Amino acid sequence: MMAVSPQNRIARICVLIESDLSRPWRIDQLADACAMAQHHFQRRFAAATGETVAGYVKSRRLEKAARLLSRSNMRVLDIALECGFQTHAALTRAFSAHFGLSPAAFRDKGLPEHLQGMPPRPFLRPLASRGLSVDFDLIDLPPQWLHWRKATGMVDGRYFPDLKSVGKAFWALRQELGSRKAHLATGFINGPRAFLDDTAVAYFGALLSDRTDLDWAHGADLLEPGSYAVFPHYGPLTTLHLTWHKCVRAGVEQHGLTFAKTWMFETYLIDTLIAKPEKLSALIHLPVQKGTIGQTPPVPLP
């Protein structure tokens, strides 16, 4: 029986946290559930998600609170209890510090656009991280055609609820591609609305320089040329969603990036879901606007 990788154990802890955001999670409890010493668990968690354990739990609670404030008529006290805050005042203090306005003002006016995160998750805001380095490379890409099939639904924070079926589909695509020069990839017009989102859509298939008639594909879309921040993912593909979280939460603010509203995508460098933690296995491509890159020089990928 294959041992569970450290990254997958961290992914399971994120699912555990999400299962009950009202619970007063303690680091020692989560470390025990992850079968790691506390200091080792905290270091692994920050490396995987871009946040401390406490920071991750707090940000997820506040994102949920913001959704409930904007989409329900629940009392602020009831929202506080639902999201793990013991009192109305405790939620107000944390919410005001995080979003820059009180829950009442947020419910009345909404969150200013300049404080929002990437759509469609405007309440998962970028995070200024001083202690964590999130490497990326800045590149200009030519136009590419994504030949795709659709997969719908997000489970436990990741796309592709049915990994076995998707794996078979990718295998069939490789057979039809033959010797054609292509990258296996998944594209996203929008990200998920929440950690669990049964409406989230992923377009998986192959990137080619020209539109090609593939029996395998159900459609094709042109990815316009532009600038992309490319973030590396190491280890198993089953934890790729954690690297996405790290890029969007910690990588954006750290490097002064502003996203362009177009396709995001990931490309795969291995033919299996399993990889050693040090193995470069995928690349995340986030479209950015020119002229908004911070002063930190890009770090070349290995």
Q: How would you describe the overall organization of this protein?
A:
With 302 residues, this protein is α+β, with helices and mostly antiparallel strands. It has 9 helices and 9 strands. It folds into 2 domains: 6-112, Arc Repressor Mutant, subunit A (Orthogonal Bundle), CATH 1.10.10.60; 137-288, Regulatory factor, effector binding domain (Multidrug-efflux Transporter 1 Regulator Bmrr, Chain A), CATH 3.20.80. The protein has helices at 6-19, 27-33, 38-49, 53-71, 76-82, 88-99, 103-109, 163-177, 240-255, and strands at 137-141, 144-155, 158-159, 183-188, 197-208, 219-223, 226-234, 264-268, 280-288. It starts with 5 loop residues before the first helix and ends in a 14-residue tail after the last strand. Mean pLDDT is 91; it is low at 294-302.
CATH homologous superfamily of the largest domain, by name? Regulatory factor, effector binding domain
Question: Could you give the order of the helices and strands?
Answer: HHHHHHHEEEHEEEEHEE
Distance between the termini: 31 Å
In the CATH scheme, what's the topology name of the largest domain?
A: Multidrug-efflux Transporter 1 Regulator Bmrr, Chain A
CATH architecture group name of the largest domain? Alpha-Beta Barrel
What is the helix fraction of residues, given as a range? Answer: 25-40%
Low-confidence stretches: 294-302
Tally the helices: what do you get? Answer: 9
**Average pLDDT, to the nearest integer?**
91
Q: What kind of sheet is the major sheet?
A: 9 strands, antiparallel
Beta-strand fraction estimate: 15-25%
- The oligomeric state is single chain
What is the CATH first-level class name of the largest domain?
A: Alpha Beta
Structural class: alpha+beta
Counting structural domains, the number is 2
The total of beta strands comes to 9
